[in-house]
Amino acid sequence: MPNVFPPSESVIPEVRHHDDDGFDSDLNNDMIVLLEENARLRALVTQLSSLVLKHVVDHK
Fold it and tell me: How far is Cα 52 from Cα 37, in angstroms, rounded to an integer?
């Protein structure tokens, strides 16, 4: 069964920092933090799914 999620290296979005002091800079930083956390959680779900599948397959 193929993985639904890409490997953890490709999940992390590329982060580009700009010297923007605009009013929305906090929003952009919050969005970046949210995307990074999302990527980490997806990687953990992938690892957990792999462990569960290995455990189920090994016990059959």
Answer: 22
